[in-house]
Design brief:
Blueprint: H1 3-6, E1 19-28, E2 36-38, H2 40-49, E3 54-57, E4 68-82, E5 88-99, H3 105-112, E6 119-130, E7 149-150, E8 153-154, E9 157-170, E10 191-194, H4 202-230, H5 235-250, E11 257-259, E12 269-271
Parallel strand pairs: 2-9, 3-9
Antiparallel strand pairs: 1-5, 3-4, 4-5, 6-9, 6-10, 7-8, 11-12
Length: 272
């Protein structure tokens, strides 16, 4: 522990006995389940951007929800591992602290016990670059589709030109799986929230995510229906379906799938 680094963010000097510290993998450079990855350069930018950023729960950005802060970070290269497309595997590791209080002793116990484990980051990336042709998405001239292979090369988007980092959160359902991060994307501002990845088996991982999200929102019957709906979907459809479920899960809304013939239905079912 570097108490000096922690005390850069405190109003009075704290002692080591007053703080609890832990490490967290914030994101990595592997291809995630949305067929996107951070550029190595983006990890370096995020390393500096996340120093001092607060840790919350479920991306609920309220002052009462703040529970930790990043006081140090580094980009780590795992020499025994490569990414899904054969590059050296790198990840961003943050060092976080919280002040020991009666209010957070249960959270500390859950972190130590491996219950609170998965995290997600929110940041802004100005560029999404096609891994096949190198063109920037949205600028025109690229017809390659994420999740498809071209000449043996898996198409995915490379996220780069990080403009800001907002926060990191403990989450129940991560979207990336090697570090444990949830990832969200809005086209206009390009806001990403990422979590570590545990597998590169893209579409099967997406289907497992969909089943898990549906179970959280509606139990086993909902999970069975969602699995059936996802069975025949391609990568883009699976991603869209998962994001819809995540939206409802974050909002605490109980989903209902009803048979519907509308164009926006998902394999015969519509998310209500």
């Amino acid at each position: 522990m570097s108490i000096e680094k922690i005390n850069r963010f405190t109003r009075r000097p704290l002692t080591e006995d007053e703080v609890y510290t832990f490490s967290v993998i914030l994101c990595d450079n592997d291809i995630d389940r949305d067929m996107e990855r951070f550029a190595d350069n983006a990890l370096e930018t995020l390393k500096d951007s996340f120093i001092g950023k607060t840790g919350i729960s479920d991306h609920n950005a309220t002052a009462d929800n703040q529970n930790a802060r990043i006081f140090d970070a580094e980009v780590v290269t795992d020499t025994e591992r490569t990414t899904a497309d054969g590059r050296p595997y790198k990840y961003l590791k943050g060092e976080a602290y919280m002040v020991r209080t009666d209010d957070n002793k249960n959270l500390i116990a859950e972190i130590d016990g491996g219950i609170k484990k998965e995290v997600s980051i929110s940041c802004s990336a100005a560029k999404r670059i096609c891994s096949v042709c190198g063109c920037e998405r949205g600028a025109g001239g690229c017809a390659h589709q994420k999740g498809k292979s071209y000449g043996g090369k898996l198409c995915h988007d490379i996220l780069d030109d990080i403009t800001d980092a907002y926060e990191w959160s403990f989450v129940a359902v991560p979207a990336q799986v090697n570090a444990g991060v949830t990832k969200r994307f809005t086209e206009g501002e390009r806001v990403y929230s990422t979590a570590p990845q545990r597998s590169a088996d893209g579409e099967n991982e997406l289907r497992r995510d969909i089943r898990r999200l549906a179970f959280f929102t509606g139990g086993r019957q909902m999970a069975d229906m969602a699995s059936l709906s996802a069975k025949g979907m391609d990568t883009e459809q699976l991603i869209a379906y998962k994001r819809s479920l995540e939206k409802h899960c974050r909002g605490g809304v109980s989903l209902q799938l009803e048979q519907d013939g509308e164009a926006d239905s998902v394999d015969g079912f519509t998310i209500k």
